[in-house]
Write a structure and sequence with these properties.
A hairpin with a 2-residue loop joins β11 and β12. This protein is about 20% helix and about 25% strand. It contains eight helices and 19 strands. The protein is elongated and about 85 Å long. It has two domains: about 190 residues, RNA polymerase II/Efflux pump adaptor protein, barrel-sandwich hybrid domain (OB fold (Dihydrolipoamide Acetyltransferase, E2P)), CATH 2.40.50; about 200 residues, Chloramphenicol acetyltransferase-like domain (Chloramphenicol Acetyltransferase). It is an alpha+beta fold. The strands form five sheets. Strands 10-19-18-17-13-16 form a six-stranded mixed β-sheet.
């Protein structure tokens, strides 16, 4: 019996997604575990594996199709002994999609993939992304596919296929670059956006003006190897599904949630000294960061001031039992917030290991949906980029987000005398519907106390 491959639900909030790339074509044999497609959701791009063996009889949704509803049949698989032509000729139901390319379906090498995030960029946005309310994940509707555990794919594979991210393919196609001539810097040699952009820059700066050719102005020869500037030159890059959802939810957050902001300066010399001592005594492989100490202090403060650990839900306000800390991690094309569940119950060494693991897997695209959905409070830290102070947009439906700046030496007045201290500025953004000003102030007071007296975090 033919197997219908359906659009799976890859996150609890996913209703539609973009079918970014097909890695197989009609007539290809697939085995269980083979990566057959890449699907772009509101959170990330995930690979889809076949769980049945057979031959791809028909591809019903073209690569690049947006807003494909969960449960839509996207392909049919002929099992062992079945006639592929009969399976392909079976009646097809119209797919509930929009913005779909031409109906003619091609092999994966002929399709124009949609844009998608790849790996972490060098910079991070100043506000946290958005996660959906903590709700049970719906069962996947695809009987023959499942999300792959990791998106790390090599740049070349069987049958001479070139492995590259969809965005890298799109940019290469726009600039007529041959992907086969590029080497990838991604996991296992996968070609990423940065690799293609570097090739574009290299080709743009190559000499393209013959000696003796003039620029047309007073007969002055044009500079050899210097491309002529085009006034107003620009490039249109399609917004990924993740980028669209982030924009929609952050705009909604600013429009609906009445933000107010509270800022304090924390002296962190004692915290830095304590961190140095802890790392000197820690086991091999454990390295506690300032961010780990910030997470620990925030979690302890949320337990001490539980009214700040809240979410507005219309007729009710939800008070969370545990400090489920979402930490903002920048990835290419957006931001994702993996969650450290019940952070108040974890020691610094455990927090360090969990945060590093979550950040690494967020950048490689291998987080499971339950690892980045939910949370009660978000921390966005831009201190590593030298940002002194900023205010973040609340990550709905949470009630607050903490923006952490860089620690830097500043002049202070201590006991009436001028002194120098390492100071870190933090700003708490609160949803006034759930968190009042006095509550936010008490939470910041508690957080500051833990940061400036780090030994109290161990009590």
């Amino acid at each position: 019996m033919a197997v219908e491959i359906k659009m799976p639900a890859l996150s609890p909030t996913m209703e539609t997604g973009t079918l970014a790339t097909w890695n197989v074509a009609v007539g290809d044999e697939v085995r269980s575990g083979d990566v057959i497609a890449e699907i772009e959701t509101d959170k990330a791009t995930m690979e889809v594996e076949a769980v049945e063996e057979g031959v791809i009889a028909s591809i019903l949704i073209a690569a690049g199709s947006e807003n494909v509803a969960v449960g839509t049949v996207i392909a049919r698989l002929a099992e062992d002994g079945e006639d592929v032509a009969s399976v392909a000729a079976a009646p097809q139901q119209p797919a509930p999609t929009t913005n779909q390319p031409d109906a003619a379906l091609h092999s994966a090498s002929e399709q124009a993939p949609a844009s998608t995030p790849e790996t972490a960029p060098e910079t991070a946005p100043v506000s946290a992304p958005v996660s959906a309310p903590e709700t049970p994940a719906p069962a996947a509707t695809a009987s023959s596919v499942q999300p792959a555990a990791s998106s790390s794919v090599g740049s070349s594979g069987g049958a001479g296929r070139i492995f590259a991210s969809p965005l890298a393919r799109r940019i290469a196609a726009d600039h007529n670059l041959d992907l086969a001539a590029l080497s990838g810097s991604g996991p296992h040699g996968r070609i990423l956006r940065a690799d293609v952009e570097a090739a574009v820059i290299a080709s743009a700066t190559a000499p393209d003006i013959a000696p003796g050719v003039t620029s047309g102005g007073m007969g002055v020869p044009a500079a050899i190897g210097v491309p002529l500037a085009t006034p107003g030159a620009s490039e249109l890059i399609p917004n990924s599904q993740m980028r669209k959802i982030i924009a929609e939810r952050l705009q909604q957050s600013k429009q609906i949630a009445p933000h107010f902001y509270l800022t304090v300066d924390c002296e962190i010399d004692q915290l830095l000294q304590s961190r140095k001592q802890l790392n000197a005594l820690a086991e091999d492989g454990v390295k506690i960061s300032v961010n780990d100490l910030v997470i620990r202090a925030a979690a302890q403060a949320l337990i001490k001031v539980p009214e700040a650990n809240a979410s507005w839900e219309g007729d009710h306000t939800r008070l969370f039992t545990h400090a489920d800390i979402s930490m903002a991690v920048a990835i290419d094309g957006g931001l994702i917030t993996p969650v450290i569940w019940a952070a108040e119950k974890k020691g610094l060494a455990e927090l360090s290991q969990i945060s590093r693991d979550l950040a690494a897997r967020a950048r490689s695209g291998s987080l499971a949906p339950e690892e980045y959905t939910g949370g009660s409070f978000t921390i966005s830290n831009l201190g590593m980029f030298g940002v002194r102070e900023f205010a973040a947009v609340i990550n709905p439906p949470q009630g607050a987000i903490l923006a952490v700046g860089a620690g830097e030496q500043r002049p202070i007045v201590r006991d009436g005398a001028l002194a120098v201290a390492t100071v870190m500025t933090v700003t708490l953004s609160c949803d006034h519907r759930a968190v009042d000003g006095a509550v936010g102030a008490r939470w910041l007071q508690s957080f500051k106390s833990y940061i400036e007296n780090p030994v109290t975090m161990l009590l």
